[in-house]
Write a structure and sequence with these properties.
The chain has 136 residues and is α+β, with helices and mostly antiparallel strands. The protein has a domain of 86 residues: ATP Synthase, domain 1. The chain has one helix and nine strands; from the N terminus they run E-E-E-E-E-E-E-E-E-H. Strands 1, 2, 3, 4, 5, 6, 7, 8 and 9 form a nine-stranded mixed sheet that branches. GO terms for molecular function: ATP binding; proton-transporting ATP synthase activity, rotational mechanism.
Length: 136
């Protein structure tokens, strides 16, 4: 592997890509604590816990993301982070409010979807039970 000054980073959620670009440094939190990754770091895979992920971009600016649990994979100069939920923040002060608002809405949407699925399953079971009844 050649020496590189940056990494290609992709942050993916189940339904969309949250970020795709180049970064000089990544800061994340695994179950055993916070860690950093530089471009020539050894390849590895780790779980990530609900936390803040930071990226220092090529231009020196910093991006911050509030992420739910997920997985980080580094291979060569590619880093892919997959999380259940995530939001991009402008600064740490407003990130918590953004996370709370978005995650609460997502939880409500998930609750409604589970409720609708339960009703569909119950209706299907009821219809199968009706099919098994002998005709009189």
């Amino acid at each position: 592997m050649s020496m590189a000054a940056d990494m290609n980073v992709t942050l993916r959620l189940p339904m969309r890509t949250l970020f795709e670009g180049r970064a000089e440094r990544i800061g994340a939190v695994a179950p055993n604590g916070a860690f950093g990754i530089l471009p020539n770091h050894i390849d590895f895979v780790t779980a990530i816990v609900p936390s803040v992920l930071t990226l220092r971009l090529e231009d020196g600016s910093e991006e911050i993301f509030g992420l739910d649990e997920g997985l980080l994979v580094k291979k060569g100069h590619e880093v892919v982070v997959i999380a259940l939920r995530g939001v991009r923040g402008d600064d740490l002060g407003t990130l918590q409010d953004t996370v709370e608002a978005n995650f609460i809405q997502m939880d409500e949407d998930e609750r409604q979807a589970r409720s609708a699925l339960s009703r569909l399953e119950a209706d299907m079971v009821r219809r199968f039970a009706e099919l098994q009844r002998p005709l009189s």
